[in-house]
């Protein structure tokens, strides 16, 4: 089982190329919102989700993608997908 | 949706419609052509006394044929009541040859992926001699616009 900190760090690496607000990126936490805090646009949010799929070798469904707007929500979905393996 | 229906669904008109014909379309890509009308206003200024089609217009032509027509086709398969609307979100294009007024170009696009409403394609444009004019990748977000 991966620690929360590990998971946040892996997510940070994924969102890093798309985050426009580098200050918010540096202080990333469970409460960070991809759109409002990191200023990621909707097209790049799709890239984040595709990169998450590749990084964790999981498949994200449309309904799940729509919920993945914060670090916390993404962690919940990633953990549940990894648990199914 | 067939090619005629897709052409009718395009949200452009002169002087910003850069599609004459859509010769092939399926879920994996689109092929179409356009002949640059020498009367287009921008030729007067790009360049002074030396008209050459601007790169942004070549990019727009590739986007209208390769990305927007394909996006409308893909959306038409999922929902018969609505028309797909494509918003361009990124471009990465290399330009190899100039295109002069009156030249006919052919655009071929291939879908890389269409997921979570984002359509990502490779596109290339060739001139009448079959030479590659420009090529690269385009992406857009495809949403549904209700009829009427």
From TrEMBL, chain A:
Domain Carrier: 5-82
Pfam families named among the record's database cross-references: PP-binding
InterPro entries: ACP-like_sf, PP-bd_ACP
Matching Gene3D superfamilies: ACP-like (1.10.1200.10)
Protein name: Acyl carrier protein
Species the sequence originates in: Pedobacter duraquae
TrEMBL record, chain B:
Assigned keywords, A-Z: Lyase
GO function terms (MF aspect): lyase activity
Presence of keyword Lyase: yes
Protein name as annotated: 3-hydroxyacyl-[acyl-carrier-protein] dehydratase
Native organism taxonomy: Bacteria, Pseudomonadati, Bacteroidota, Sphingobacteriia, Sphingobacteriales
């Amino acid at each position: 089982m991966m620690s929360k900190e590990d998971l946040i760090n892996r997510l940070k690496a994924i969102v890093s190329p798309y985050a426009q607000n580098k200050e918010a990126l540096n202080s990333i936490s469970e409460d960070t919102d991809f759109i409002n805090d990191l200023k990621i646009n909707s097209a790049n949010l799709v890239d984040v989700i595709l990169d998450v799929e590749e990084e964790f070798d999981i498949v994200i469904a449309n309904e799940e993608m729509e919920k993945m707007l914060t670090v916390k929500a993404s962690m919940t979905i990633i953990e549940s997908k990894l648990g199914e393996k | 949706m067939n090619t005629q229906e897709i052409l009718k669904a395009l949200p452009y008109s002169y002087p910003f419609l850069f599609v004459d014909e859509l010769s092939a379309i399926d879920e994996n890509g689109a092929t179409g052509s356009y002949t640059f009308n020498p009367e287009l206003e921008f030729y007067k200024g790009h360049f002074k006394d030396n008209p050459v089609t601007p790169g942004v217009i070549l990019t727009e032509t590739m986007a209208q044929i390769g990305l927007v027509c394909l996006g409308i086709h893909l959306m038409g398969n999922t929902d018969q009541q609505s028309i797909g609307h494509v918003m361009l979100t990124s471009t990465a294009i290399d330009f190899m040859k100039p295109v002069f007024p009156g030249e006919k170009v052919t655009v071929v696009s291939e879908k890389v992926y269409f997921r979570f409403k984002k359509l990502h394609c490779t596109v290339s444009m060739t001139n009448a001699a079959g030479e590659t004019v420009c090529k690269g990748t385009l992406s857009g977000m495809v949403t549904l616009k209700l009829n009427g």
